[in-house]
Design brief:
Radius of gyration of chain B: 23 Å
Order of helices and strands of chain A: EHHEEEEEEEEEHE
Oligomer: heterodimer
Largest sheet of chain A: 11 strands, mixed
Bound molecules: flavin mononucleotide
CATH class of the largest domain in chain B: Alpha Beta
Largest sheet of chain B: 8 strands, parallel
Radius of gyration of chain A: 18 Å
Number of strands of chain B: 18
Chain lengths: ~220, ~450
């Protein structure tokens, strides 16, 4: 295992070391000490390595991640795992705004709560939140799955496209064009798999599913907001 | 019509300037359909523009350079502030960001070919980077837009520069639209959305708000790309002094400033015609911001919005821009709105020169479409050749003017070389009214 003290090494050198890891690297496990809320830690990774951040991170930790597994042993600042392509990011604590924004793939697990705009504009990423999520989450979400074991704030799934939203608790309000949908067996199956991969022991049957009413897909004056 | 009845003069019918025929037609259209007019292009109304400025030329106190013989350099380097690899261009005229989706694949290829032949850069757009475009563009700027359609770290790393789009001159504060007709399988796949649905691009970035966040966003993009490539910030001509100041403070290498005449692929007409400031009102304010920060020429300024000729280029540069960008003019060079398609324009209810329904995907010239038959009308090799010719002519024109002003580099053009022929232009561009030394609006209290 490689252990790096971020305060000694500096962000640029740390990220460069991580970027230099090839597909076949044998330095597969990295521990980052003293993150102290620094921004852009471990962003742009592109190798099947595991990075454990021992503390809380600032903005955009693990941004644009590909292939790597990033574990944050603390809470994450805004835009954690933004635009993730693949791999996984697991946060032990809470996540600030825009967690998983525009993510194209991979799995984001937030063991605490997530703030507003979680999964905004998501494009294929799977997000599992053990706690609650804030307002305007999954705004314009295009595809992928958002699983919320707690409650969701106002305007969930506003202007939603094809992403699937699963919420176990209450939903303060649904955004424009977001509706509750029937939970069919195929959805339960998807949800069970997500809960398992998200290290969460909630029961799929306790969730409700929300999705797009698809009324905003082609402009119609009677459906305009 | 007779002007009298029984010998009594009558009142002649007068069309209202306020309720003109086009205005009334638009009211009727709105009443019938319930939807605002969406169109492409830029502001069509007459605005103070580069045409309202003139060069003074040489005189006893300023001697000219010999045309063709004496050197007049045109090169420019963009991104010298932080990037390891700034962009070196042979000419200061770049191709603006226009999306694949709005434009066909061959049109994007033609832009890349033309720009490469001319030694300049081209830019992706809302919708991501295509292989044709990357392959045919020696220098490609990759736009980072609110929609993040097709955004991925691999394309980020194969770009020569990154342009964070905050706004566009045609619609500062507005997002993009690509209507269902143009969402082919390929466009849908790149944008990760179902085929055939209207695609709205967000007007605001999903994961940052305000200049403090933007600074951190830039840090992230630099970390992902190893501080290699320049980062531009593109703003619409709204509050150029403050936007330029904030962009520089956030860490931009280059500021791209797009005035309200700037084209768009599709937006509400009300937005295009009523929001934003004309480009000549923006340039000096942006330059003033750079000067106040001690950053003029350290952070380069690229301006756009209605640039058509070498004279426009020279005027923009005389006002302090380092380079310009063109969108609409490049499309016209490729063949957009060419009268040779007049019969087809008529069939669409319009005429060559006025065709702006670029969002509908029926472009007779095969440029703003995803229809395979129409697309095939544009030969990307020939298109690239035409664009290169046009860029060369603009460059020669700008050099002609610069030499006449005694300048051996386009960058040496200065405000002192200009005068304004209208009061409005003088006030907006902070250039003295011709025949006077009056800078309207700049009087000392
Ligand atoms: C067809 C078309 C598509 C455009 N697409 C984009 C885009 O995707 N992103 C962007 O920042 N600007 C876009 N623009 C605006 C141009 O980048 C540029 O700001 C503008 O065209 C400059 O003004 P001009 O057309 O008068 O030269 C587009 C413009 C046109 C004409």
């Amino acid at each position: 295992m490689q252990t790096i003290d971020l305060q000694d090494t500096g962000l640029r050198s740390l990220n460069q070391m991580l970027h230099d890891q090839a597909e076949t690297t044998n330095q597969t496990v990295w521990e980052i000490d003293n993150p102290k809320g620094a921004h852009a830690i471990a962003c742009g990774l592109d190798a099947p390595i595991e990075v454990v951040v021992k503390g809380s991170t600032g903005y955009y930790c693990a941004g644009m991640n590909k292939e790597a597994t990033v574990r944050i042993k603390g809470s994450a600042g805004p835009g954690v795992a933004e635009n993730m392509m693949s791999g996984s990011v697991i946060i032990d604590g809470d996540a600030s705004q825009y967690a998983g924004a525009t993510g194209h793939g991979g799995l984001l697990v937030i063991k605490g709560n997530a703030s507003s705009r979680c999964g905004i504009s998501m494009k294929g990423i799977d997000i599992v939140v053990h706690g609650n999520i804030g307002h305007m989450s999954a705004f314009m979400a295009q595809s992928g799955n958002l699983v919320v074991c707690g409650d969701a704030g106002e305007a969930l799934g506003d202007s939603l496209y094809e992403a699937r939203l699963f919420v176990r608790g209450s939903v303060k309000s649904l955004g424009a064009d977001c509706v509750e949908k029937e939970m069919r067996p195929e959805h339960l199956e998807i949800l069970r798999d997500l809960l398992e991969r998200g290290e969460c022991n909630a029961k799929a049957e306790e969730f409700r599913r929300y999705g797009s009413a698809r009324k905003l897909y082609n402009f119609n004056i009677d459906n305009a907001y | 019509m007779k002007d009298d009845t029984n010998g009594i003069p009558r009142t002649v019918p007068i069309q209202s300037a306020t309720f003109s025929n086009p205005v009334n037609a638009e009211i009727r259209r709105a009443a019938a359909t319930g939807i605002y007019d969406i169109r492409g292009g830029g502001a069509k109304r007459k605005l103070p523009h580069f045409d309202d400025l003139l060069f003074l030329g040489a005189s006893i106190s300023r001697y000219p350079l010999e045309g063709y013989r004496e050197k007049c350099e045109t090169s420019v380097t963009l991104g010298t502030r932080f990037a390891k690899n700034p962009i070196q261009l042979d000419i200061p005229i770049t191709i603006a960001g226009m999306s694949f989706g709005a434009l066909s694949g061959p049109a994007k290829e033609a832009l890349g070919r033309g720009a490469t032949l001319a030694g300049t850069s081209t830019t992706t757009g809302d919708g991501g980077m295509t292989d044709e475009e990357r392959g045919h563009s020696d220098k490609l700027v990759y736009q980072y837009l609110p929609s993040r359609y097709g955004m991925n770290p691999d394309d980020l790393r194969r770009a020569d520069a990154i342009e964070i789009v905050v706004g566009q001159g045609a619609k500062p504060g507005g997002g993009g639209m690509l209507l269902g007709q143009k969402i082919s399988d390929r466009v849908a796949e790149m944008r990760n959305l179902p085929k055939g649905i209207d695609q709205r691009s967000a007007c605001r970035h999903p994961d940052w708000t305000g200049p403090d966040d933007l600074e951190i966003k830039i840090l992230e993009l630099r970390e992902i790309t190893g501080w290699r490539v320049p980062i531009y910030i593109k703003v619409g001509g709204a509050r150029p002094y403050f936007d330029t100041t904030l962009a520089v403070k956030a860490g931009a290498d280059v500021v791209v400033l797009d005035g309200m005449q700037g084209g768009t692929a599709a937006t509400q007409d009300v937005f295009i015609e009523h929001v934003g400031q004309p480009i000549i009102a923006c340039i000096r304010e942006a330059v003033r911001a750079l000067q106040d920060l001690g950053m003029h020429r350290e952070v380069q300024l690229v301006v756009s919005g209605g640039i058509r000729t070498g004279a426009d280029v020279a005027k923009a540069m005389a006002m302090g821009a380092d380079a310009v960008a063109i969108g609409t003019a490049a499309l016209i060079a490729l063949g957009d709105n060419d009268p040779k398609w007049e019969a087809e324009y008529n069939a669409l209810g319009t005429t060559a020169g006025a065709y702006d329904d670029w969002h509908e995907g029926n472009d007779p010239a095969g440029i703003t479409t995803q229809d395979p038959d129409l697309m095939a009308r544009l030969d990307p090799v020939e298109g690239g050749r035409r664009l290169n010719n046009y860029l060369k002519v603009m460059t020669l024109e700008a050099q002609t003017i610069a030499r006449a002003c005694g300048k051996n580099h386009l960058h040496n053009l200065e405000p002192e070389d200009l005068c304004a022929v209208t009061l409005e232009a003088a006030a907006m561009a902070k250039i003295p009214l011709a025949g006077t030394n009056w800078y309207p609006g700049c009087e000392k209290e």
